[in-house]
């Protein structure tokens, strides 16, 4: 082998080694590109997931705020309704107390309307209590009217409740007298 053949063989070996190195470099480059793309895709997906989670968290916060606001508005409207009902009840109570004051002070005690009112109140009280024995109090000035309508009230109660007539004892302790026209606000509830 002479120098030219050796040089030629060395050149051939260098080309072969270079070609192998270029192929290996290409493989490494392609592999690195693939790994880069995979890692980039994973990072992008992870960030997308974070963004979705953040969006869902904020959406839930908005929904919670909406529910709280709705609940507050609902409570406010309920309070308004209750206040309106309370105002109506107070107005009715005031009107009833004025009417009762008029009824009790205009000498309706002897009149049929007042005795009918007392009888109805006794029946209503018995229906509410539903007891076989009741102790009842009344005003001293109403005692004779109460005693006059008591038997009819007991009979009406027994008929409505479909029970035996209850024992009703009129207490010897009397309720206080009603207010006068001079002081209509003295009526206590």
Automatic annotation (TrEMBL):
Transmembrane segments: none annotated. It comes from the Eukaryota. Belongs to the V-ATPase E subunit family. It comes from Lactuca sativa (Garden lettuce). It holds the Pfam family vATP-synt_E. The keyword Transport applies. This is V-type proton ATPase subunit E. One of its GO terms (cellular component) is proton-transporting two-sector ATPase complex, catalytic domain. The keyword Transport applies. One of its GO terms (molecular function) is proton-transporting ATPase activity, rotational mechanism. Gene3D superfamilies: 6.10.250.1620, ATP synthase, E subunit, C-terminal. Keywords: Ion transport, Transport. The lineage of its organism: Eukaryota, Viridiplantae, Streptophyta, Embryophyta, Tracheophyta.
């Amino acid at each position: 082998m002479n120098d030219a053949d050796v040089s030629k063989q060395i050149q051939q070996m260098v080309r072969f080694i270079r070609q192998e190195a270029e192929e290996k470099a290409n493989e490494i480059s392609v592999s690195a590109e693939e790994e880069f793309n995979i890692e980039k895709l994973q990072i992008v997906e992870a960030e997308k997931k974070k963004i979705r989670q953040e969006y869902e968290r904020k959406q839930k916060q908005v929904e919670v705020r909406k529910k709280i606001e709705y609940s507050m508005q609902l409570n406010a409207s309920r309070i308004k309704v209750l206040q309106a009902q309370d105002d109506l009840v107070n107005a009715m109570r005031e009107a009833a107390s004025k009417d009762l004051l008029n009824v009790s002070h205009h000498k309706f005690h002897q009149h049929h309307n007042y005795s009918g009112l007392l009888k109805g109140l006794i029946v209503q009280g018995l229906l509410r209590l539903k007891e076989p024995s009741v102790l009842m109090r009344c005003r001293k000035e109403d005692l004779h009217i109460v005693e006059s309508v008591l038997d009819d009230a007991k009979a009406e109660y027994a008929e409505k409740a479909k029970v035996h007539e209850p024992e009703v004892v009129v207490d010897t302790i009397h309720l206080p007298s009603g207010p006068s026209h001079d002081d209509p606000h003295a009526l206590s509830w």
